[in-house]
UniProtKB/TrEMBL annotation:
PROSITE patterns per UniProt: EAL (PS50883), GGDEF (PS50887), PAC (PS50113), PAS (PS50112)
All residue ranges annotated as the PAS domain in the record: 282-333
Protein name, UniProt field: GGDEF domain-containing protein
Residue ranges of domain EAL in the record: 575-829
Source organism of this protein record: Shewanella inventionis
Domain GGDEF: 432-566
SMART domains documented for this protein: EAL (SM00052), GGDEF (SM00267), PAC (SM00086), PAS (SM00091)
Highest taxon of the lineage: Bacteria
NCBIfam families the record matches: GGDEF, sensory_box
Pfam family, one: PAS_9
Residues in PAC domain copies: 226-278, 348-400
């Protein structure tokens, strides 16, 4: 049995040894003074990296605990017993730094007043059991030496026996002077068989040589050295990793007097090391980018994949916030939700668009986890992300395949149907019409058969482009299959607008299709139109009916179109003919003006003429302005026609003036669309200048509906016209947008009672009432009142009797060519006379 009193220097040496042993656990275990008198014992366990004030805390808490325990044992224990106690060591912030377990063994309870031995302290850190350090305090030694306060007898044999590690001591000659129980078990020899022997007595020569070599190493180094590390099988045939460390023992003068050695199983440590290496390998070689930040979000580590994906090196991002990758594509609320989830659930998974170092934005699938300590305080955030650019592109491609025609890139049937369905619900709510046009190329099979599918595809691609250009941004063009295309026209105002679209679609076939080989091909198409809600109220029936209409167009000789309802088809055909003719009319000089005299009711003298347009088409014959003016407004021809009318009427006025004819004013009708043009006033001014008609001989008739668009601008323009000397009258008063509010603001001179109110007076009580009211209202506003459509003397009498100022109508004259109006145009000299 190795039993010796330990001096302060030995205690220090011993301390050094223990420090070395426990170094890998990052602990310092300090044995200080032992004083039984006041029951103080300081066995201090502190983390090496812990600041001093924290060490102090450990000391206090540990001592308090131990002292309390000692008191308990001296007071009431009667039988030997072992109590295991545990103590958590916390830092000032409350984090657990270490866990101490120690047992107080009550041996000699009959010897009253003796200090009960404290047997062992086991130190744990983060679940790793460190070496058991057994301090067996010999109570009698303590008691005897307590007076001097220097000597502490410690049973070193018991101390080293408490270790599972093999511990042995050799003198400078290599003779064993002590060992522990573990050595006995491992070497299958008793201490007696070991002590006094050399390695050459105990082992084969090769082994002995290596052991002696290790001793020399330690002595020469003057400090602890690891002399071997090897994998072996223990007594129970378990695989163990053995590490042997040796340290020189010095006397008080610092001279080496022997070697202390220890072999221990470092399997767990090795395992942990391997795990660490493995984890480090996984971390570094992962395909996913990994970024670790501290609790403040500053980057503390990244892996290679992070650099590969983002382009940022480790040095560039260490200590920075991951927001350096921000793409700016997500709103603030996105990150607020992310952080909420992360803090509440400890994890967030989703997709983020980030920016690479060189600027490119890329999508990543990312999982961010918070790493908590035992106090549930966040220590780190770990984000693992994958670049999903390629995945996104593939998804996009798949989506494209699902919803778009790969040849023309137009929506396919599925996408078209879904868009129609959406638009139908909107049309239903807004009470609007919607048209579906089914378009099929005539004889396209012949193209494929004769020129091949590649050329056929080329034509389809070109056709898709042309059709797209022919439509507005709101219309939807799709390719259903082969040579079948379909168009949705949302919010149509009637068949006219459909006809216009059909016409534009047909026009794309007017140009030949020039192929790669410079060959040109001419095509035609047949179209069918179905209109919601009259021809179907869901996408299926509308498409079916448009298809049926298209087939009828084919039967009618192809290069044609048909509405699902026959009457609509006729109407549309007529409309298209008219439209085409109207485009030609201006160039062909097919328009002319007629003039209808306006008379003063009081004395039946002529006060002016209304210019009214007429159109004679060589094929279609005479077409009423009531029919073509609204069409000209729809297809945008009214501006040109309007200016022509104004100029022609002014020239006529100048001609009459030149001939010495007397008239007050020539009035010209102005459509709302004309008045809504910002350059209308300038154009009128220009025409007056060009023609030379004095403004005082011109009157413009505008309708109430002109006020619907931008009343302030219209009022401003009318004032400008009035200021030029042009008279202004409101045509068709009472039939439309009769806002008295605007009426009083308008710089007008006359109100024209619409002929629908003149008809049937004086018999129709309603019309007579309206006519009287308009006269009264106009006079209240200081306006002259003119009645149109006066056909009978009774109407004229009624109007005169009720204060109407002027009249025009068949009673006096139909609108006529100037040559027929001589009777209404007295010479100035006659007029004066
Ligand atoms: N923007 C322009 N609009 C024009 C122009 N010329 C005509 N119009 C508008 O077209 C609508 C139809 O006009 P029209 O067929 O010429 O009919 C006018 C007269 O001919 C007709 N009228 C006149 N007297 C009688 C009558 O006693 N009985 C009867 N049944 N019809 C009669 O009324 C029309 C008068 O039109 P208005 O005074 O403008 O209301 C019509 O809306 C014209 O305005 C043009 O150059 N530009």
């Amino acid at each position: 049995m190795l039993k010796t009193a330990i001096s302060q220097s030995q205690l220090r040496e011993w301390q050094q040894e223990i420090n070395d042993i426990s170094a890998e656990f990052r602990l310092t275990i300090t044995f200080n003074q032992l004083n039984t008198r006041d029951h103080r014992f300081e066995a201090l366990c502190i983390s090496q990296s812990t600041p001093e004030r924290v060490c102090q805390q450990h000391k206090i808490s540990l001592l308090q605990y131990i002292n309390a325990d000692l008191e308990k044992h001296t007071q009431d224990s009667t039988t030997p017993e072992v109590d295991i106690h545990h103590q958590l060591i916390r830092s000032k912030e409350g984090h657990i730094i270490a866990a101490l377990s120690f047992s107080a063994v009550n041996h000699d309870l009959d010897k009253l007043g003796l200090f009960q031995p404290l047997s062992a302290i086991q130190v744990r850190i983060a679940d790793m059991l460190s070496n058991a350090i057994c301090v067996y305090v010999n109570s009698s030694d303590l008691d005897i030496k307590s007076d001097t306060g220097i000597s502490h007898a410690v049973d070193v044999q018991a101390f080293i026996n408490a270790f599972d590690e093999h511990i042995w001591i050799k003198d400078l000659h290599g003779i064993y002077i002590g060992c522990n129980k573990s050595v006995e078990r491992a070497w299958r020899k008793t201490t007696e068989q070991i002590v006094g022997k050399s390695d050459f007595d105990l082992f084969d020569k090769r082994t002995a040589d290596s052991f002696v070599e290790g001793d020399k190493l330690a002595i020469e180094a003057g400090t602890t050295v690891v002399v071997s590390e090897c994998e072996e099988v223990d007594l129970h045939f378990n695989k163990v990793w053995l590490e042997t460390i040796k340290a020189p023992i010095h006397d008080d003068q610092g001279q080496p007097i022997g070697v202390i050695g220890m072999t221990r199983n470092i399997a767990k440590h090795k395992e942990a090391q391997e795990q660490l290496v493995l984890a480090a390998n996984v971390f570094q070689n992962a395909v996913e980018g990994v970024v670790i930040t501290d609790s403040d979000g500053n980057i503390t580590e990244i892996n290679q994949a992070f650099t590969d994906i983002t382009g940022y090196s480790r040095e560039e991002v260490m200590g920075k916030n991951p927001s350096i990758l921000s793409s700016g594509r997500h709103p603030k609320s996105f990150f607020e939700r992310l952080w909420n989830t992360l803090l509440v659930q400890g994890k967030w998974h989703g997709e983020i668009w980030n920016r690479r170092k060189h600027g490119a934005i890329f999508p990543q699938a990312i999982t961010i986890s918070a790493v908590f300590d035992k106090q549930n305080i966040i220590q780190y955030y770990v984000a693992v992300f994958a670049d999903i650019s390629v995945q996104k592109q593939n998804e996009e491609k798949l989506k494209n395949l699902a919803y778009f025609d790969p040849l023309t890139q137009l929506p396919n049937r599925m996408q078209f149907m879904s868009l129609v369905e959406q638009e139908l619900s909107h049309s239903n709510r807004a009470k609007k019409q919607l048209a579906i046009i089914f378009l099929d190329i005539d004889f396209f099979k012949h193209i494929n058969d004769s020129l091949g599918h590649v050329i056929g595809d080329e034509i389809l691609v070109e056709l898709a482009k042309r059709l797209s250009y022919a439509l507005s941004d709101y219309d939807v063009l799709a390719r259903l299959s082969g040579d079948e295309f379909v168009v949705m026209l949302p919010s149509i105002s009637g068949t006219d607008s459909v006809t216009s679209s059909v016409d534009r679609l047909r026009s794309v076939f007017e140009r030949p299709f020039i192929l790669d080989n410079a060959q040109s091909v001419r095509l035609t198409a047949s179209m069918g139109v179905a209109i919601y809600p009259s021809d179907g109220d869901d996408h299926d029936s509308l498409l079916r009916n448009a298809d049926a209409a298209m087939h009828r167009a084919k039967l009618d000789g192809r290069n044609n179109y048909a509405f699902y309802t026959e009457s609509m088809t006729k109407q549309a055909v007529a409309q298209l003919k008219l439209q085409t003719a109207l485009h030609q009319a201006m160039a062909n000089d097919d328009f002319y003006l007629v003039y209808q005299p306006k008379l003063t009711l009081k004395d039946n003298t002529t006060c002016g003429f209304e210019a009214l347009i007429r159109w004679h088409d060589p094929v279609l014959g005479d077409i009423s302005p009531g029919e073509f003016i609204p069409l000209a407004e729809k297809i945008g021809l009214i501006w040109g026609i309007g200016l022509w009318v104004l100029k022609t009427a002014c020239l006529q006025g100048v001609e009459w003036l030149t001939q010495g004819k007397s008239f007050e004013r020539i009035s010209v009708n102005v459509a709302s669309l004309q008045l809504n043009r910002s350059d209308f006033v300038d154009q009128v001014r220009l025409i007056l200048l060009e023609t030379g008609l004095p403004a005082k001989h011109l009157e413009l008739e505008v309708t109430e509906s002109c006020m619907m668009h931008d009343p302030d601008a219209i009022i401003r323009d009318l004032k400008l016209l009035g200021a030029m000397g042009i008279a202004l009258s409101i045509d068709d008063f009472g039939t439309g947008y009769s806002s008295l509010n605007y009426l009083k603001k308008l710089p007008i001179d006359k109100l024209k009672i619409d002929q629908s109110f003149v008809r049937d007076i004086p018999h129709d009580s309603n019309n007579t009432a309206i006519a009287k009211a308009v006269i009264a209202l106009g006079h209240a506003l200081n306006l002259q009142i003119i009645a149109e459509g006066v056909e009978t003397q009774a109407q004229a009498d009624f109007l005169r009797e009720n204060g109407c100022d002027l009249a025009q109508g068949y009673l006096y004259s139909k609108p006529q060519l100037p040559s027929a109006l001589e009777a209404f145009l007295p010479l100035v000299s006659e007029h004066k006379a």
